[in-house]
Specification:
single chain; about 200 residues; three-stranded parallel sheet
Length: about 200
């Protein structure tokens, strides 16, 4: 619980997020809880004086700036989740296992990385599809959020998980990693040619 009178400055760092509904969602929830909470998006594609393609590394550098400016926390989204692991002073177990950070808390000058995509997806799967057949699951995408959903699916009992990503190497690496973590499940990467049949 927040201390009386304490305010929280929170940010969302990512590319193409100007229209995100996350800031108003967080602020309304905080209002209902009686918290002084200001949530600001930092869109890498709309930064003034920063022309050119979205830079995930620039997003990671902004985390350091947010810490110095007194932010309480930042959410991190595409394309920064995986690069955000390296500068963390501490990682939660989920963030370390997934190699992706989506929430950064600033505490005593330190950056603590978390990944709430796993728990969020797991809760939604249990609540929304409690009787889903997890015998065979085909998943598209193995980036930051895709890594989290794959992990949550395997933890929920998926017996066969087939992963496809436009970056074939990333899908293969993720499949190999999760096959080691979940030896009782069959985890494999799909090629573009195998995807239609799957």
């Amino acid at each position: 619980m927040s201390l009386p009178g304490r305010s929280h400055l929170v940010g969302l760092i990512g590319g193409g997020i100007t229209a995100s509904l996350t800031p108003p969602l967080h602020e309304r929830t905080a209002d209902r809880l009686g918290l002084r909470y200001l949530y600001r998006p930092v869109d890498l594609e709309a930064l003034p004086g920063h022309p050119g393609p979205v830079s995930a590394q620039h997003g990671v550098e902004l985390l350091g700036a947010a810490r110095e400016l007194g932010f309480s926390a930042c959410n991190v989204t595409h394309p920064c989740k995986q690069l955000a692991v390296a500068p963390m002073d501490e990682l939660s177990e989920e963030a370390a296992r997934l190699g992706a950070v989506n929430t950064v808390l600033f505490r005593d000058g330190r950056m603590i990385g978390h990944n709430t995509d796993v728990t969020g997806f797991a809760a939604a799967l249990a609540a929304g599809l409690p009787a889903a057949d997890l015998t065979r699951v085909v998943q598209l995408g193995t980036g930051g959020a895709g890594s989290a959903t794959a992990y949550a699916l395997l933890a929920a009992g998926a017996q066969r998980l087939e992963l496809f990503d436009v970056d074939r190497q990333r899908a293969e690496e993720r499949a190999a990693e999760y096959a080691r973590l979940f030896p009782g499940a069959e985890v494999r990467a799909l090629s573009r040619e195998q995807l239609p049949e799957a």
